[in-house]
Amino acid sequence: MSEQVSRWDVFEFSIKGPAGGNPYLDVNFAATFSLGNRDVTVPGFYDGDGVYKVRFCPDTEGEWRFVTTSTDKALAGLSGQLSVGPAKSGVHGPVRVRNQFHFAHADGKPYLPFGTTCYAWTHQTVELQEQTFKTLADGPFNKIRMGVFPKDYIYNTNEPLFDVYEKRADGSHDLDRPNFECFRHFETQIGRLMDMGVEADIILFHPYDRWGYCTMTEEQDFRYLRYIVARIAAYRNVWWSLANEYDFLLDTKPMERWDRFFQIIEEGDPLRHPKSIHNGDVDKNYDHRKPWVDHVCIQNWDVKKTLDWRAAYGKPVVNDEPEYEGNIPKEWGNIDGHELVHRYWLTLCRGGYIGHGETFLDANDELWWAKGGVLHGEAPARIAFLRNIFEEDAVNGLTPMLERGTTYKRVSAVQDGDVRYIYFGEHQPVEWALGLPEKDGDWEIDLIDVWNMTVTPLEKGPLPKVHPQRITGGSHITNQFAAAFGLKLPGRPYLAVRIRPRKTH
């Protein structure tokens, strides 16, 4: 009898097997799923107490069959079938790169990442984790950066809820024996995020460690990576972030090992979830041109360089750490909400994506960026506002206008089809025409106040006056605008303009 599964949901096959010795080291287990002439091999894993599992996310409707393989005869040759029906309402499948610089779900629905960072939230008390879920449910974020391992860092020095690996009698960790309870809890939280429509950007390694996780041997690293991929790759909302600040780990994990990490993920992830890697030093970006990197994950406060990163790497740019809204005595953690919102608009209107983080001092050291909990800043409401604006007309992705023009190194402008956005940022013109449509028509024009969250209709106006200008070589340019009309503006900073064909209902 077939088990009924919806497209892009998780199917799990579980079987009892040998428990002696150390199956994490000694037993390989996998299954091949078949539909027609298509075969998909998925790695399985040991879940403790003699239980072996394999998880599969079917991407196609139909009658699938599977058969297991294993180094243990008792686990080999087991078979079954599953009947895959349509996706549930609201489920659009895993996110993938689309149109070179952008993202979409597997069914084609555009996906604009509006992520936040909570590095060690799954390692906190159950009560604090529940508060994090509530905050996410009420907030603007559709992606969260989160680490597999706990973190030893200022404001984040408590012991984790669960050890990731078993403790020996002397208190050290046996890095060849996973704590299955920890992994079960971690994937449960991923599943809950999935049900909420929140992507889980999984940070696989980081340098802030006192438990020995960042100094595992190469063999232990590879085994851990295969294990976590086998456990969670079937969740449609997973993204892979190989590291937070990988360059701070080069003393223990050389560059060639990072390259191999990407390949191991590809070998075990048939859904091909997005993969990237995050730098610490702004001058130590990984070479995102490598073919196994799907998108550029970057840490840099100078968001006006977004155009440069697009040109350098030719892939989607996600600046996950443009600095955080907060007040801690760290230069990366004390910009105000206004500045963070400004950086959001700069980034999006240069064809990139950007992430949120919050670091306000707290008597209990419960800072959102580290542990989740509650948000205190002014930026999230404005992020919700801009997310609604950009998602409303999203089709193919935001393409920078006149990327090589010097004007757009200052003022930011993008378009998606017939829809244009111009963000003036710190500039405060009272007249404008550059980047406006060249053909007159029935355009809906709106003035957007990015901080006060208002949208005000604008009327077409006359073109600003111009004067011919001598250029190098003695010739002249007319400086005539190509636009069919101009705009009159209030003459204050942090405004944007949206121009789109008027909608008829």
From TrEMBL:
It comes from the Bacteria. Residues 4-70 form the DUF5060 domain. Pfam families: Apiosidase (PF13204), DUF5060 (PF16586), DUF5605 (PF18310). Transmembrane segments: none annotated. Residues 99-356 form the Apiosidase-like catalytic domain. Gene3D superfamilies: 2.60.40.3950, Glycosidases, Immunoglobulins. Residues 415-500 form the DUF5605 domain. SUPFAM superfamilies: (Trans)glycosidases (SSF51445). This is DUF5060 domain-containing protein.
